[in-house]
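Please decode residue identities from the backbone states below.
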């Protein structure tokens, strides 16, 4: 298992970074969408109401 992790370290680092940035985009996108909805008199996105 240690050899597999050592041999695929770059892949694992790229997957981790992708997931971190993807989650960040989802959170900021939901917040932006929620602000736009509220600006137009619509209901906000439930997960962005914190």
């Amino acid at each position: 298992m240690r050899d597999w992790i050592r041999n695929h370290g770059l892949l694992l680092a790229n997957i981790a970074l992708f997931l971190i940035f993807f989650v960040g985009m989802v959170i900021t996108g939901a917040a932006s969408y929620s602000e736009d909805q509220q600006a137009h008199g619509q209901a906000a996105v439930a997960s962005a109401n914190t």
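Observation: The chain has a mean pLDDT of 89.
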